[in-house]
Amino acid sequence: MTGAGITRDLEAHGLRRPRLRRAIPDAPQDVPALLAAATLACPDREAIASSTRRLTFRELQHMSFRAARAWAAVGVGPGDRVACSLPNEIDIVVAFFGAMHLGAIWVAISKSLAPSEVRLMLDDSDASVFLTSDTMGRRLGEGGFPPAIRVLTVEPGGTGDWPQLLARCGDGPFDSVVDPFAPAAISYTSGTTGFPKGAVHSQHNMVLVAVGQRTLGRLQPRSRQGVVLPLSLLNMQLVGPLAAFLVQSTLIVLERTQAVPLAQRIAAESVQSFVGVPTIIHDLLTNDEVASEQLTTLERVWVGGAEPSEEFRRLFAARFGVEPANGYGLTESPNGCITERPGEPHLAGCVGRAYPTLQALVVDLDGRRLPAGEQGELCIAACADGPYAEVYTPMLGYWKRPEETASVLVDDVLHTGDIAIIDASGNVFLNGRRNGLILRGGANVYPAEVERVMASYPGVRGVAVLGIEDERLGERVVAIVEAADPTTIDAKGLRDHCHAELSRYKVPSDVRVIESLPRNAMGKVVLRDLRALFDEGAPPGQGDHDAR
């Protein structure tokens, strides 16, 4: 089934309809309306700037109209899937807004993924068009594309199929008629079963992320907000363009994450805020070539993916005059849903309080809500009262995975799988994660996915993948391989096999080969007995310790 039929038959794709369809108070209801409101309010204000281009809100609106017509020209309509994987540039923002005008479903694909991972997502989503770079296109072309997919390319300097297509389309007003609650985007997250799962979101719940940030004071109107993490991730479209444009701010697209060029761009563009991961905070702080004067315009720095250490928070504040603030979110929520409040003192181990647009709660194994101070599974749900009562909706489900949808969505309550305590003031303290999820440099790595790939290598009889504490990355990925004869395992061949099938950040930095994995009476691998293999002073394993 393609196109508008998806909206009529969500259940066939493993999705669920929101129980209620409540309008967002005092805000646009969909993505095109959000951009239209900013354009009406300040048409000549700079909306977005990269190192190569700058557009006002009026110019960005006209480009989004062109993009909508360009998508339509290649046969895209409401409910059709359009995939995109591009570097940080204005092109990806324009393409996203164009797809939203049409009511198409945006398939966000990280540019760091391995070709096999990209092909899997293209095939799983049944995407009809893939917008990417020539480089990615060539890499994927070597292994073949899913049938019936059209590839469009864009390169810096305005070359490629997509810029040519845009140039042939008009930029006059485009009549956008979209259902805010219909499927609008698929964001893939690594699966606990070893295969990626596509979390499906509506325009309504994407816009609500930005509204939540505005409501708690995280967004400053008419400021200069940077986006350094990849816009090829749906999350960054929400906390980048949508959040900035909602408050009529300028979005500064930061193309490089390396400390020195990043600091140079922050200084040149007078960036006032950005969202990063602990790795970026670490590198800015520890690089002697970064001058404190380069970051004097920064007023807010938000950190997601994992918490920066208490020491690094203090050192960053002492050197640059701004203390990084914690936040928490997940692909299914979508994006941020808990954060520290601006100006409030930091509590050690706390990731903040729920956005004003939703509520966080903790439940026991039977799904019963627990009182303040008790530990249980963290859940995200709509507010019970107040201006945002019953407005929040989580994802519509996992694309074509009804059983997994049912396991995390219960009566419109999203079960995160994270273990937490919420105190009487609503402060959330995370105490662990189910399924052994590894947070490496702000990116999620599910052990099952890595184990599945490693287990297919000749001579491997069993695999255990886990995360080990790392000062820079938060956690690094390591693996223990079980082999009947450890001498038969070719370490280089095993790593080459992983690099061919996985993103670089998922490949274990250290591999230990042993004859037998420790297991309990039920045959489950006992991970606590394996961590000692990576303790300081343990014999070195086989791996690329610079795979960062």
**Number of helical segments?**
15
Content of β-strand? 15-25%
Corresponding CATH architecture of the domain at 1-14 and 23-40 and 57-172 and 180-202: 3-Layer(aba) Sandwich
> What is the CATH topology of the domain at 1-14 and 23-40 and 57-172 and 180-202?
Rossmann fold
Structural class: alpha/beta
Structure commentary:
The protein is of the alpha/beta class. Among the domains are: 1-14 and 23-40 and 57-172 and 180-202, Rossmann fold (3-Layer(aba) Sandwich); 348-435, Luciferase, Domain 3 (Luciferase, domain 3, Roll); 437-534, GMP Synthetase, Chain A, domain 3 (2-Layer Sandwich), CATH 3.30.300. 28% of the residues lie in helices and 24% in strands. It contains 15 helices and 26 strands. Strands 1, 2, 9, 10, 11, 12, 13, 14, 15, 16, 17, 19, 20 and 21 form a 14-stranded mixed beta sheet that branches. A 7-stranded mixed beta sheet has the order 6-5-3-4-7-8-18, with helices on both faces. A 3-stranded mixed beta sheet has the order 24-25-26, covered by helices on one side. Helix 3 (57-73) packs across helix 4, helix 3 (57-73) packs across helix 7 and helix 11 packs across helix 12 (310-320). The model is unreliable at 544-548 (pLDDT under 50).
